[in-house]
């Protein structure tokens, strides 16, 4: 329903917030799409997830600077969902072996079509081909969104350079995620789902702050503390565990392959020994990577829920309404509050059917 209103150019305040809730849906949809296309727990899945989130961020950034929510010729809420549904149908058509068909090469699946294509494209797998199509659409949306922001900035006599700086928070966020995974490659193979949910919660907090700034006409939120804190802790812990090779005994510190502050290593060694016992091998350190991912996921969920509940509370206070339920209509009659179902009481409370209330009726 909200997508139809967007197409007609009629999006109100509640619609802006409702559409931005899709930041979490984008993450969940990316995981389902990766499973349907047999991407496994790989860099391809991370690439597709961050591309989808980048498209979402770009749309919110564009709305902040233009004041209008544009739907491109290939937008995620419409054409993107149709493409995903098509992939689900094809994968479901072949049962348990359905996702495996996306590992086939174009030359083997469509030989007549492959003969018309360059050899590089013809040898691509089907899932790689669809990811390439998504990347082309992403580039197109980046160009069209940038042009819309340039026009709006020129019409309002604002600096386009300052507007473009609004893309830096997502670039820094993406860089931090990729360096985290590069330092901890075991996350890709063992803890990718909780890690993706962590990324989705952080991203939801980021675009939520942006749409709040747009609606309330505040300055652009370049800095997001939960993202900075969680991504920094994740990268530091990944660096420690990456260089944590062996320990020599219960009372010894870790043996590091590269120079790193020994104080931090000894402190972390003691903390892990108290919580989980002595870490003897790098495999155990890999287990601790998963523990840190799950702990940081809880922190990210808490940060997002705190932000969402605060926004809901403030909106209910401003508009004098309830969330997910209709507030009863109150009709004031001579200092008392009369409710539609017939009961009358003092103002602000339903009250009992007293003698004075019967007289008022």
From TrEMBL:
Coiled coil: none annotated. It comes from the Eukaryota. The chain crosses the membrane at residues 41-58, 70-90, 129-150, 162-181, 187-208, 220-241, 285-305. Keywords: Membrane, Transferase, Transmembrane, Transmembrane helix. Its main location: membrane. Belongs to the CDP-alcohol phosphatidyltransferase class-I family. This is Cholinephosphotransferase 1. It comes from Spizellomyces punctatus (strain DAOM BR117).
């Amino acid at each position: 329903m909200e997508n139809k209103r967007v197409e007609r150019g009629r999006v109100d305040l509640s619609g802006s917030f409702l559409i931005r809730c899709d930041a979490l849906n984008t993450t969940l949809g990316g995981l389902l799409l990766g499973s349907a296309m047999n991407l496994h727990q790989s860099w391809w899945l991370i690439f597709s997830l961050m591309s989808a989130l980048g498209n979402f961020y770009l749309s919110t950034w564009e709305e902040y600077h233009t004041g209008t929510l544009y739907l491109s010729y290939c937008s995620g809420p419409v054409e993107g969902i149709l493409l995903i549904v098509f992939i689900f149908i094809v994968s479901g058509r072949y049962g348990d072996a359905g996702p495996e068909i996306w590992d086939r090469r174009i030359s083997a699946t469509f030989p007549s079509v492959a003969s018309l294509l360059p050899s590089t494209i013809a040898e691509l797998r089907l899932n790689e081909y669809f990811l390439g199509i998504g990347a082309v659409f992403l580039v197109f949306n980046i160009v069209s969104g940038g042009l819309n922001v340039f026009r709006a900035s020129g019409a309002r006599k604002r600096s386009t350079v300052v507007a473009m700086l609004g893309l830096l928070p997502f670039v820094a966020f993406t860089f931090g995620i990729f360096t985290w995974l590069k330092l901890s490659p075991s996350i890709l193979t063992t803890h990718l789902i909780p890690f993706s949910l962590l990324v989705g919660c952080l991203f939801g907090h980021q675009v939520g702050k942006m749409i709040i700034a747009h609606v309330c006409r505040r300055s652009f939120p370049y800095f997001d503390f939960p993202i900075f804190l969680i991504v920094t802790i994740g990268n530091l812990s990944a660096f420690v565990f990456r260089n944590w090779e062996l320990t020599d005994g219960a009372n010894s510190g870790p043996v590091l392959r590269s120079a790193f502050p020994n104080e931090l290593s000894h402190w972390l060694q003691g903390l892990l020994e108290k919580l989980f016992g002595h870490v003897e091998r790098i495999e155990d350190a890999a287990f601790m990577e998963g523990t840190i991912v799950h702990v940081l996921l809880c922190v990210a969920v808490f940060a997002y829920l705190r932000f969402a509940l605060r926004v809901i509370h403030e909106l209910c206070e401003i508009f004098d309404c309830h969330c997910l339920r209709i507030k009863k209509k109150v009709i004031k009659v001579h200092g008392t509050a009369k409710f539609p179902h017939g009961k009358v009481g003092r103002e602000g409370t339903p009250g009992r059917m007293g003698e004075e209330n019967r007289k008022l009726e």
